[in-house]
Every structure is written in structure tokens, then in C-alpha cells.
Amino acid sequence: MKDLSLMTWKEIVEVNKENAIAFIVMAPIEEHGLCLPLATDLIEGQAWSKKAMEELEKNHGLDCYFLPTFPIAAASVNEFYGSIHFSMKTTYEVAYEILESIRCMGFRHIVLIASHADPDHQLAVTKAVRKVNRKNNICAIAPMGAIFMGAGLEQPKEIQSMEKEHGNDFHAGWIETSSLLSINKKHVRQGYKDLPDSNISDREMIFKKKQLKAMGKYGHIGFPRLASEELGNLLNKNCVESICEAVVNFYRREGYKKYDDYFLYKILPLHIGFIKVFGRVRRRKVGQ
């Protein structure tokens, strides 16, 4: 794998674009409770992409390229210090400009890893991918929205059991804490096992006030106390394998549609954030 930003323009010209996969990671800098760093989603996206590129080069003979991660993402909850969010419209426009730039370099297979599950972000990158694909035929895919919604490879039984019992784990809970314990346990603060549970349904997650009430003074929604490195290993492995399947199928242009379909995109009211007056990010000074 090679970092495109460390190459010269002439070296990029000489890349065999037919056999090349270009990876982009877009995720936010934002609060992740008391036990995880602001860069949690960035760290996950980078780790998943790197491992996927290693597997694709080793097992499928593809040449992988990547750019430095873009800390740009859409989200709506700004009541905690540390969150740097962008509007859906800005995120969409930036994602499109990045994709279009890489397409103009001649790359035919572009993978946008949007490692932030917030629907605002997934809608924005999906819209950008659809636009660049309409303009240039099919050249890009953003599989994470579908993977987050369960379209990836079947999860191990241990994860299925956890999700059955503690499935409402939306933000900085056992899922993300486990993932980071697996990637680099130094990123996880001590005391995560002492944090209280914060339970909210997926329907309630639609409403910002209910999200904030669930987050309380801690900033997480879920069950960080249940996290473990072993669960993280399983979660990350499954995510990487799902990304690899999506990329290989996309490269072949067959069987990739399940990763190309973010079903929330079809819910028109969710698109209101693309309208400037409704989608602006309300930044405020946070109380102590």
C-alpha cells in the first residue's frame, strides 16, 4: 500500500489504475464519552482500512493507495467539548470534491470509508458517491453505512449474543470501547468498567433531546463496562472482512449492491439537513 500524498504527480500517472484501489477515510473529531479519545472514529477508520488493504494486496493481488484521513463529518450533537462537526451540505460537497479529484487522477475503484455511523454523515457521503458515479459511470463506493446496518458478513456468535442482550449501544459503549481496546488499548482510559449504563432505543435516537438525556454528564450511549479486547478482536475482524468483500465485489462490479445501498437514504425527511437553514451546525459554549 502507498500513501498518495507522498508520491509525485508523475508517479501517480504511472500507477496501473485498472488494478488500483484508492482508499479515503472520512470521520469526525468528536467527544466519545469519558473513556475514549476525540479521534475514536478516525482511529477505527484508519485501522480498518489499513488491515483491509493488507488483505487485499496479499490475497487478491490488488494495489492499494490511500490519502491522509479527512477529519470531516456531519453530526448534530455539540453539547460536549471536543466535537468539530460540519453540516450535511458541507460534508457532501467536500466528499464529492475529494472523490472527483481522485477520479480525475484516473482511479476507477475508489472506496470511501465513512467510519462514523451517524445517519447525517452516511447520507452526506452516500449522496456524494451517487453524484460522482452518475457523472463518471461507476467508480466509487461507500460501504460503511450498509455494514453498520448489518449488511456485512455474519457476525460471530459472541457478538450476536451481545447485540441481542445489549444492542442499544450507539456511542462510546461496549462496541467502540472494545474496538479501541483491540486496536490500541492505550487509547482507552482506565475506569471504563465503572461507567454507568445508558440505554435508549433506536427510535428514541431520532430525537436529539432524548439523545442528550441518555448521554447525561458522561457522553456515551450504551454499555462501556461490558467492553473487552476479545470482543474488539471479533468486531474489527468482521468489519475488515466485510470491507474486503465489498471492495473485491466492487472491483469485479458484481455482487456489491448490498454494500452500495444505505436504506436510510430513501427516507426523504432525513434529507432536510441538506437545506442550509435547517442543516446548519449550532455551535455553543459548553457549560462546565
Low-confidence stretches: none
Distance between the termini: 44 Å
Shape: globular
Give a count of the beta strands, DSSP E runs of length 2 or more. Answer: 5
Helix coverage percent: 40-55%
Give the rounded overall mean pLDDT: 94
Helix count?
Answer: 10
Q: Which radius of gyration do the C-alpha atoms yield?
A: 19 Å
How would you write the strand order of the largest sheet?
1-3-2-4-5
Order of helices and strands: EHEHEHEHEHHHHHH
Range of strand content: 5-15%
Class per helix and strand makeup: alpha/beta
How can the largest sheet be summarized? Answer: 5 strands, parallel
Keywords:
single chain, 5 strands, 288 residues, alpha/beta, 5-stranded parallel beta sheet, globular
Q: Mind explaining what this structure looks like?
A:
By secondary structure, this protein is of the alpha/beta class. The protein contains ten helices and five strands. The chain has a five-stranded parallel sheet, with helices on both faces. α2 crosses α9 (229-252) and α3 runs parallel beside α4 (119-136). The longest helix has 24 residues, at 229-252. The termini are far apart.
